[in-house]
Specification:
By secondary structure, the protein is an alpha+beta fold. The protein contains twelve helices and ten strands. The strands form three sheets. A four-stranded mixed beta sheet has the order 1-4-5-8. Strand 9 and strand 10 form a beta hairpin.
Length: 382
């Protein structure tokens, strides 16, 4: 569906990404789902085509375009029908490399951002811990200043790209100050001594993205790998959350569109009681309700994307978009599976994958309950 936010360049780019997805990703989705990861070659392919660098500066190999172009890429990527494929790439460019772009220095950008844009290195973000999810102020992982380096100890879990990352942007405590003034971000290379990848986690959905535990045992982190200023990591994480949550909302919309598309097609092909399912008004109206639900989420999200693209703080808008779109996609995918009937419960129909993948959208990047709690404060309800 067209929208005034997109110009001709955005529309041409969308067509280009769509063609790539149909040719180079869709045929391999089932293979990657079973493997539990996407191949490194996918990062290299998308990097060579410039898809990974749309928003990043030209001097580091990016296209120097806008965030709207990045939004187009995320939407078309998710339409491959695998949330896991989308999660791997989106985590790489959206939540792992973005802190280096926004808060890192020139040397860090040359060393880590540029090869990430080229698809030659894979990045991950390490924040979540076994006992610290949405409450990032309660992190246990700690980096101790040893003069010319820090010594990092601790663990992370639920880390997308964790098993295959070349480097991880790690959040760690660097002070005994309370809460929001006690953590920093570091770039930690995965081949450093003391860096261990734990077990690869088995998930309900997003199966094509590798998700793992990470352990740090006296890892020496050079001082030059501190991102930005010491003890300002919480601020950087909060700023990064705006785009992460919009990425989740955009992904939800694209996945819901895919589910509705499949439901409409199936309802026209499946014959029951002497005619196609689409002859039944109750199902036609159900699909109309699904389309309206998607459109509500799209407009909330696109408004926030437009605002962040022109430099506005969109904490409230991005939180609303994430909260609504993440719940919407579960509703739409559930109805799409229902329209498929017994076939929808069979593994050979992709709608079951949409349904499983959708369930994480209201958990990852902050649960819906956390989103609502943020909004009570932003709207001064409490």
């Amino acid at each position: 569906m067209t929208h005034w936010m997109f110009n001709e360049d955005h529309n041409m780019f969308r067509k280009s990404v769509s063609r790539f997805v149909e040719k180079e990703i869709v045929p391999f989705v089932e293979e990657w789902e079973k493997a539990g990861e996407v191949p490194r070659s996918l990062f290299e392919q998308t990097g060579e085509l410039g898809f990974l660098g749309t928003k990043f500066p030209v001097e580091y190999g990016g296209a120097g375009s806008d965030l709207i172009m990045d939004a187009v890429f995320i939407e078309e990527l998710i339409k491959c029908g695998s949330g896991g494929v989308g999660a791997s790439i989106a985590a790489h460019i959206g939540i792992a490399m973005t802190p280096i772009w926004k808060f890192g220095n020139d040397e860090q950008k040359k060393k880590y951002l540029q090869p990430g844009i080229e698809g030659k290195q894979i990045a991950a973000l390490g924040i979540t811990e076994p006992n610290a999810g949405s409450d990032v102020s309660s992190l246990v992982t700690k980096a101790v200043d040893k003069g010319d380096h820090y010594v990092l100890n601790g663990s992370k879990t639920f880390i997308t790209n964790g098993a295959n990352a070349d480097y991880v942007v790690v959040a760690a405590k660097t002070s005994d100050e309370p809460g929001h003034k006690n953590m920093s971000l570091f770039i930690v290379e995965s081949d450093w001594e003391g860096f261990f990848v734990g077990k690869k986690l088995s998930k309900l959905g997003w199966r094509a993205s590798d998700t793992s535990e990470l352990y740090f045992d006296n890892v020496k982190v050079p001082k030059e790998n501190l991102i930005g200023n010491l003890n300002e990591g919480f601020k950087y994480i909060m700023i990064n959350f705006q785009w992460e949550r919009l990425t989740m909302a955009l992904s939800s919309i694209a996945l819901a569109e895919k589910a509705l598309e499949d439901a409409i097609r199936y309802s026209k092909e499946r014959i029951q009681f002497g005619g196609p399912l689409v002859q039944f008004q109750v199902l036609r109206h159900k699909m109309v309700d699904m389309a309206v639900d998607i459109e509500k989420a799209r407009n909330i999200t696109y408004r926030a994307v437009y605002q962040i693209n022109v430099g506005h703080d969109v904490t409230t808008e991005a939180t609303m978009a994430k909260a609504y779109a993440a719940e919407m996609v579960s509703r739409v995918c559930d109805q799409a599976l229902q329209i498929h009937g017994g076939s929808g419960y069979m593994m050979e129909y992709p709608v079951q994958r949409y349904w499983r993948d959708a369930r994480l959208q209201s958990i990852g990047g902050g649960t819906t309950q956390i989103m609502n709690e943020i909004l009570t404060k932003r709207l001064k309800i409490n």
